[in-house]
Amino acid sequence: MELMVRKVDGRIERFDLNKVIRGLQKACEKRPVTMEQIHDLAERVRQDLMMRGKEEVSSQEIGDIAAKYLKKLDRIAYIRFASVYRRFEEPEDFRRILKEVRK
């Protein structure tokens, strides 16, 4: 089964594990996270999506799953990732996620 992704603008494209890896790499830049950990995390995201048994997932679902795993791996990388994929626009957005991470 080929997994398709519905983008925020409504377009549909094939799931690309390399896009997940690139997003994680950006978030983990200059953090103590290895490429092996990034690849493992991306693979867990793919497996979670496949286990859902759906042919189509939203880019939001992919981001949520990736963020969940990244939060456990490196909290700073998680904040970076969340700020992009959740489209932070106000300082309050950062305050809210900092509170969440401190818990």
Report on the structure:
This protein is mainly alpha-helical and 103 residues long. It has one domain (4-102). 65% of the residues lie in helices and 9% in strands. It has helices at 17-28, 35-51, 59-73, 75-85, 91-102; strands at residues 4-6, 12-14, 56-58. The protein has a three-stranded mixed sheet. Strand 1 (4-6) and strand 2 (12-14) form a beta hairpin. Helix 1 crosses helix 4 (75-85) and helix 2 (35-51) packs across helix 3 (59-73). The radius of gyration is 14 Å and the shape is globular. The termini are far apart. The model has no long low-confidence stretch (mean pLDDT 91).
Summed up, the helix count is 5
- Unreliable stretches (pLDDT < 50, length at least 5) are none
Shape: globular
Within the largest sheet, what's the order of strands? Answer: 2-1-3
Q: State the major sheet.
A: 3 strands, mixed
Structural class: mainly alpha
Q: What are the secondary-structure elements, in order, as H or E?
A: EEHHEHHH
Helix fraction bin: 55-70%
Topology, number of strands: 3
The number of domains: 1
Q: pLDDT average, as an integer?
A: 91
How many angstroms separate the termini? 39 Å
Keywords:
single chain, 103 residues, mainly alpha, 3-stranded mixed sheet, 9% strand
